[in-house]
Amino acid sequence: MRVLRIVGVGLGGAIVAGAVVGAISRLLMRAVTVAADHPGSFGVSGSTFIVVIYIVAMIPGGIVAAFTTRWWRWLVFGAGSVLLFLPAVGVASEEIGGTHGLSPVRWVLLIAASALVFATIPADAVATARLVDRWRGRSARNLIDAADLSAARQ
User: Fold this and answer.
1) Which of 35, 70, 124, 137 to pair with 76, CA 20 to 30 A apart?
2) Helix (H/G/I), strand (E/B), else coil: 59
């Protein structure tokens, strides 16, 4: 029963963080479209798909983070981040294509919004790990103290 609770914490962290960060990412994607002076719209299915991908990508990392605070949990989050990064590049190139004649202000907005979309990828991993750690009763101070104690023993 304890294992199911721990898995549930990891799953819950991935769902909450993925939903919030995925929604923010979707809004930023819309900002990229507007900055590139392209027509665009919010489709329910497309927006839902983006949020679901952000959730699914963090589930393995969230579950691993629920069981351990060791450094290698970030490798699992990294794999999930790659899953988000690859389609993001394709979507960005499709959305940004045809930017001839943009004003300098639009270029700045386009670059800034695009950078923020890509920044949501590691933010999803960090948010998931922090939620899981908080729900498991691990504070940042406790994690630092545990690392110091472990290093002192070696």
Assistant:
1) 137
2) helix
CA distance 22 to 41: 17
77-97 exposure pattern, b = at least 16 Cβ within 10 A, e = fewer:
beebbebbeeebeeebeebbe
Q: Rg for the chain (alpha carbons), in Å?
A: 18
- 135 vs 11: CA distance, rounded Å: 11
Domain boundaries, the chain: 2-153
6-57: pLDDT as tens digits: 999 999 999 999 999 999 999 998 888 888 877 777 788 888 999 999 999 9
Q: What angle do CA 113, 114, 120 make, to 5 degrees?
A: 90
